[in-house]
């Protein structure tokens, strides 16, 4: 080891770059060989940090490189937890990966969330507990209160803290409840990757219902438009995922919270050749058959061009749309968001640490996309799920964990590759930019281009002759023991238990797999996380549950009034805590993406990498992201809804990792 004098008086900023640990921390006596290995590795890291600290203080730099941990040693640090209520995850976060809660969340948002979650109202210094619906008696009053609070807190004094009403939300739109806004949310809202082409079976169900109700206008449309014009939101897997029978009631009686109710709705949409998505019919609660599911409501407005004057007072239809949004709250929060991004990416992190050497090119391509993920997921398991999701969900605590477990069994890693997923759901990627039918599907158009851009970056690295390029590339991949180990770790019953993770044996398969790992952490999580505040803080747009049982007859449903819809929402004084928690958590999770963790910053850092192959690919990525920004701006301008521009996937707004 050689020492080089750099600066006898290092600046204060340099001293703050490292955590200062001038003493080695005492550790408990290990009780087993694995614990001894883990303790030894951690002790080594402490010593290395202290040496680095000394060299910084003294103005010296060590010429030694960071020691590479052997895979065997890292297997002791990164151990699977397979015995609790959650899908496979990391048992204990190693010290070097730990991120404090105050570095993850903005303090004011976190503080107010804690006040609401733990009912610590004596510490409510910001007055967040006073932001509820305040016993309003009409939807118009709810909208007016929402606007009043936004006007107040978006123009408050500089010394007053922001709150959930400071940013804009969907409830400020005078048309928030309309068919147009409801339909567009499945293309550019918080969950834009669930809508799918209607199967023949579902079309038959809706056709039979239309015949029973003698709805000739709907029958004419169903027969003339062609099957490819119809799409569904299908939430009929909720009961089975929760371990319930097809007709069992969906209900929750969480301690300290009011009784809540759920349904599993199905919504049918008509997507016309000009790209207008229009809700046509809603099954309030599918219970396995038409005979068991009598409440099937058809929109009085069969086409989007029909008069809109009746929409505001069509309370049965507004209630039906509320049921769909309630179903999506559970599906989005538990499956699309928590499981399919947070928990899946954690499995990738653990599996990679247990499989690759730290200088392996796949490990180096992936590691920058793991920032904060392990710590935020640990917080989700310890606090967010039991203290927020469980009290607000329409199912019991045990059923929440059962939904996570059963949904994980159905997770399809390769089936969710962006081009495959879009095609399987009835949106062919070759037509996204050429067929007017798809021009409003901002998520699909953006995410497909983002996938292509990230895949190009990954390909530029992996197909270089320094790695797997040139003749024999596939053979190199197939023979790579680290890649084999990663697939085995992800598939193993003693590992991630992900049976759909691919066996990678070609360069193209490797490129797709690595791209998917980055996609989950960066654009996919960004798309389904950062719009939560806008669409969910105004609770009537997407409530977590119903507060009255759903009607069981068409007569009862058709008799629904404004008061019935209000009763189904948490607007009464005794439901105030639930309302506030539903509104606050989306605000907590939707801050602006900081530049330091954005995709353009990642590209700049890659362009400066000491590996010339990565640096070259990083420079190309920088240029490609600039082109994406221009393309996404153009796409946003083409979408018919001009009130809320679809900007969440702009590169500068896309986080490189799951940082919150």
UniProtKB/TrEMBL annotation:
InterPro entries: LipOase, LipOase_C, LipOase_C_sf. Pfam families: Lipoxygenase. One of its GO terms (molecular function) is metal ion binding. Keywords: Dioxygenase, Metal-binding, Oxidoreductase. One of its GO terms (biological process) is linoleic acid metabolic process. Transmembrane segments: none annotated. It comes from the Eukaryota. Residues 50-660 form the Lipoxygenase domain. The keyword Flavoprotein does not apply. The keyword Glycosyltransferase does not apply. This is Manganese lipoxygenase. It comes from Psilocybe cf. subviscida.
């Amino acid at each position: 080891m050689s020492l080089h004098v750099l600066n006898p008086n290092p600046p204060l900023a340099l001293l703050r770059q490292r955590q200062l640990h001038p003493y080695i921390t005492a550790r408990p006596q290990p009780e087993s060989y694995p614990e001894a290995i883990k303790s030894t590795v951690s002790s080594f890291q402490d010593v290395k940090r202290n040496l680095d600290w000394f060299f910084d203080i003294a103005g010296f730099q060590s010429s030694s490189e960071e020691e590479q941990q052997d895979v065997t040693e890292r297997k002791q640090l990164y151990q699977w937890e397979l015995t609790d209520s959650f899908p496979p995850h990391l048992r204990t976060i190693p010290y070097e990966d730990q991120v404090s809660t105050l570095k993850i969340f903005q303090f004011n948002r976190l503080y107010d969330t804690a006040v609401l979650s733990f009912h610590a109202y004596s510490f409510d210094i910001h007055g967040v507990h006073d932001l509820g619906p305040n016993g309003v008696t009409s939807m118009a009053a709810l909208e007016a209160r929402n606007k009043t609070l936004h006007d107040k807190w978006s123009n408050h004094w500089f010394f007053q803290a922001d709150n959930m009403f400071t940013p804009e939300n969907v409830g400020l739109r005078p048309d928030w409840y309309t068919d147009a806004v409801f339909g567009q949310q499945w293309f550019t809202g918080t969950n834009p990757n669930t809508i799918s082409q209607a199967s023949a079976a579902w079309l038959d169900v809706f056709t039979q219902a239309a015949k029973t109700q003698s709805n000739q206008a709907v029958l004419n449309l169903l027969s003339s438009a062609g099957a490819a014009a119809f799409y569904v939101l299908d939430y009929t897997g909720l009961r089975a995922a929760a371990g319930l029978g097809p007709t069992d009631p969906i209900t929750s009686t969480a301690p300290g919270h009011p009784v809540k109710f759920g349904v599993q709705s199905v919504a049918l949409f008509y997507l016309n050749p000009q790209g207008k998505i229009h809700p046509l019919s809603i099954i309030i609660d599918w219970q396995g058959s038409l005979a068991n599911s009598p409440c099937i409501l058809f929109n009085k407005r069969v086409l989007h061009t029909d008069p809109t004057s009746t929409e505001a007072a069509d309370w049965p239809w507004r209630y039906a749309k509320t049921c769909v949004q309630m179903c999506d709250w559970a599906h989005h929060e538990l499956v699309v968001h928590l499981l399919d991004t947070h928990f899946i990416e954690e499995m990738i992190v653990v599996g990679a640490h247990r499989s690759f050497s730290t200088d392996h090119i796949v490990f180096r391509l992936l590691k920058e996309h793991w920032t904060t993920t392990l710590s935020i997921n640990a917080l989700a398991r310890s606090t967010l799920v039991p203290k927020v999701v469980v009290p607000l969900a329409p199912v019991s605590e045990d059923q929440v964990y059962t939904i996570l477990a059963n949904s994980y069994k159905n997770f399809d890693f390769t089936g969710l590759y962006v081009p495959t997923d879009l095609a399987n759901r009835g949106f062919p990627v070759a037509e996204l930019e050429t067929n007017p039918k798809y021009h409003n599907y901002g998520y699909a158009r953006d995410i497909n281009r983002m996938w292509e851009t990230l895949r190009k970056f990954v390909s530029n690295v992996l197909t270089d002759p320094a790695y797997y390029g040139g003749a024999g590339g596939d053979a190199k991949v197939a023979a790579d023991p680290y890649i084999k180990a990663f697939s085995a770790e992800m598939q193993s019953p003693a590992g991630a238990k992900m049976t759909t993770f691919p066996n990678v044996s070609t360069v193209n398969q490797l490129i797709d797999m690595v791209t998917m790992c980055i996609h989950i952490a960066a654009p996919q999580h960004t798309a389904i996380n950062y719009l939560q505040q806008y669409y969910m803080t105004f609770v009537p747009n997407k409530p977590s549950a119903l507060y009255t049982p759903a009607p069981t007859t068409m007569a009862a449903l058709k008799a629904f009034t404004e008061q019935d819809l209000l009763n189904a929402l948490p607007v009464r004084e005794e439901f105030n805590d639930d309302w506030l928690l539903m509104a606050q958590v989306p605000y907590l999770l939707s801050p602006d993406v900081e530049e330091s963790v954005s995709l353009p910053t990642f590209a700049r850092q890659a362009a400066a990498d000491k590996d010339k192959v990565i640096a070259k690919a990083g420079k190309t990525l920088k240029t490609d992201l600039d082109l994406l920004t221009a393309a996404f701006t153009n796409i946003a301008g083409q979408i018919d809804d001009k009130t809320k521009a679809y900007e969440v996937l702009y590169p500068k707004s896309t986080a490189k990792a799951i940082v919150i």
